[in-house]
Design brief:
heterodimer, A: about 650 residues, alpha+beta, 4-stranded antiparallel β-sheet, 11 strands, about 65% helix, about 10% strand, B: about 160 residues, OB fold (Dihydrolipoamide Acetyltransferase, E2P), 2 domains, elongated
Amino acid sequence: MIAELGHFTLILALFMAVVQSSLPLIGAQRRHAAWMALAQPTAVLQFLLVAIAFLCLTHAFVTSDFSVVNVVKNSHTAKPLIYKISGVWGNHEGSLLLWVLILSIFGAAVAVFGGNLPPSLKARVLSVQAMIAVGFYLFMLLTSNPFERIHPPPFNGQGLNPLLQDPGLAFHPPMLYLGYVGFSMAFSFAIAALIEGRVDAAWARWVRPWTLAAWCFLTAGIALGSWWAYYELGWGGWWFWDPVENASFMPWLAGTALLHSATVVEKRDTLKGWTVLLAIITFSLSLLGTFLVRSGVLTSVHAFATDPARGVFILILLIIVIGGSLALFAWRGPQLTSTGLFQPISREGALLFNNLVMTTAAAAVLLGTLYPLLLDAVGGGKVSVGPPFFNAVFIPIMVPMIVAMAIGPFLNWKRGDLMPALSRLRVAFAVTVAAGLAAWSIYGDGPFLGVAALALAVWLGTGTLTELAGRVKLFRAPLDESLRRFRRMPRSAWGMTLGHLGLAIAIAGMAGAGAWTVESIQVMKPGDKVTVGGYVYAFEGAKNGKGPNYSLVHGTFQVSRNGEHVATLRPEKRVYDVSQQPTTEAAIHTTWRGDLYAVIGDPEGTDGAYVTRIYFNPLVVWMWVGTLVMVFGGALSLTDRRHRVGAPQRRTGAAAVAAGT
Amino acid sequence: MKRKHKRLTFVFIALLLLGSAAALVLTAFEDNIVFFYSPTELAEKSPGPNQRLRIGGLVEDGSVAKPGDGVVTFKITDTASTVPVRYKGILPDLFREGQGVVAEGRMRDGVFQADEVLAKHDENYMPPEVAEAIKKTGQWKGQGDAPGAAQGKSE
């Protein structure tokens, strides 16, 4: 009964979305106030309906209602409660439901909190949001119904993939989706602006917080996924350039560019067309990412053939959304004329440079991700494009941007001067050279790329700190004056500083872990010792045990350095009862210098010996800390005054009106 | 600078970036693309010892041996041809005899030296290329393609 209720409310939500996508849009075109006003109640109602549907599915999972196919396939009575709940979105159908739920949350938020938006813009934005929703509702109801029943119901379910039974991954998809779907707001604003034919500073100020929020969630989501891969897969790696990872990374690159170009629209009233285009690209990549992961097309283009209904629907939806919005852009985009002048050496010039690099990088990643599919589709053979390709392409593209990232914030808007900016970076440059030489002398035997990347991180970090010091007039004004300035710095400025600083810290982590990881694979008997990265690992043997829904083998390592005990590591190998699927639980001891990482494999022989894999991963923790700093910076910037206190008042002066409808 | 020149500056920078990116992509494609072969194709094409490739098939029943020191040897088959594989390291959790597997590495002296072995986190997994290869030999008994990717996360 409850599953039918969920199915029914989902259908009602579709109808609500159809109304919301049409009437307010027509109303805005004909300046019909009552029709425009329809957007708000429909958006809120649509949210409530989807929320009920989502609760119904959650109820089915929590109570283990095995008359629902989705629950049978993805749950089991012996599963801990938290994973019964995360099982709701741990599958194709449920994850789509989560997607539309988040979409409707964002829509309802605009309806409720967007009181200061002009009515016509608000109506159009909500209509475009509802159009996206209609596509997803149809997709779910026609091809991927999460509430499908099965008769007769089996006694128990097939369980959730044990690899996904993990706190890191329980929250990875919702975070990622908050990011993907958050970009739908930027998209809706962009389409609404194209229909209105008007983009101005106020528009940018509305778009930016949504983009920023989406960016924060996406950053956190990607970091969670990478962290999960690091500790759960047991390969000691944290980024594999796997198509699934790329699918979330491409919208991140484009979204980061959008974040920066929206600033230019807000401050300088220029780069409008480009910003609108970026918003479209970012959301298109989010859609592509969702479907690349969900459709199974990554495994093989033939996966489409096994389930043609879904595959064809996805293709049509992508063509309509991406093609339609680009066509609209081609038609209306030229009307978005800019008033601001544009100097190459200026803040906006630097931001544009960021944009060019980020989009080029996103395009390169897209090409590498889709190339095997395209080649296979035209019958050109089966290839895989792996990390060597992406490292060879992505890293060189990023280097000039990171160099420029330290300089950009010193340039003034409108007309910057390169020489004064560079001279203020003298200290940072000296520190970078010193740090580079120091790293060279310590790690000179390692790859040169690692030393260069460490130096880049230092350059970006010190450059950002120099900018902060200049802003608060450190050492150039009395200390209490500096402190006062420090406290009064606008939060958006903090956002930039922390965002860049976080990236510097993360790059240091990536450089360390990428260049100097030590790996050692061997067979160890109880009592054996092995030295990895200066740490001595003594293997004490392995024991059998039992977890809530799995049995396990856990080994024990006593780790010491220079005779002093550092840590006790207990890696596990689990076998889940339901699926009989084994998983590896790495044991990790984190220090600021690096992670001690131990994995236990299969037994070898009969004398208690096991294959063991031990890593020393230098500086890995810096990567997560850097990402946290970035997300914190973004969140801080979101609370900036100008996003809250009546700031988005659309100026009615002629200067703000770029082009009439 | 005149307005026109400023615009040209950006066009120039953009072209420079795109051009160098394109050059990077092309050289990287040349060096880093890894072709996938079934054991039968491998026998036909006999690639050189320096070409990196992926092979896929089923782990032949009774072929897995551990000569010690963490080394594993096994045979990959598509039921028509068979390739011996040597790998040092911890096998993926789902590596089993009779199951689908993909190995990446180089062909040396008739033995495939794998430095990476991938098996799917799903007990029903069959790499699609493997399924296709076996279908060609007429031995296929499964239904359709199995879901999931060969490596990494399956959300």
